[in-house]
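User: Some background: our group keeps a shared notebook of sequences we're curious about, and every so often someone picks one and asks for a predicted structure to add to the entry. Today it's my turn. The entry only has the sequence so far, pasted here. Could you supply the structure so I can complete it?
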Amino acid sequence: MNLGAIPVRYAKALYKLASDKGEVDLVFTDIEFVLALFKQNHDLNQFILNPVYSKREKKNLLKTLLPEVNILVIKFLEYVVDKGREAFFERMVLEFRKIHYETEGFIEVKLTSAIPLRENQLEAIKEHVKSVFHRKPIIEAQIDETIIGGFLVMVGNRIYDHTVKTKLDNIKRSLTR
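Assistant: Of course. Here's the predicted structure to add to the notebook entry:
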């Protein structure tokens, strides 16, 4: 069995169920919340991944910890535990996100800058990405002081590098030839 196909199949199935019930946005929010909870809580993550604990113990813990989470997400998590696919959960969520973004016309954008950008700068970048890719950008911004100034935009496999560090490196390379 192709292990890479497992998360895709589970994500597609969950998306279809959520879509049929008209709860895609709610399921998306809740499943992202659960993933963040797993990432933030090392002990919880280790408990869920540990084969020593029974499926019943894992499902009971999930129900106890997640009383406000959509029932479809709870049932999905229970099914994942029943099938012993807990190790694939993060990839399932990433695949669900990918399906959701494609369906809704979103595109993920990773933006790195030396300092936090002003709102009007972010809007200009969003508008440019929207005009080039014809999709609504969802920007994940991060700060990296090593780029000195400017910004770096990653959209899919494309990189737009407008950093001072790269420009200085290019000048240095041209001078040392």
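Suggested note for the entry: The domain at 5-102 is CATH 1.10.520 (Peroxidase; domain 1). The chain has a mean pLDDT of 95.
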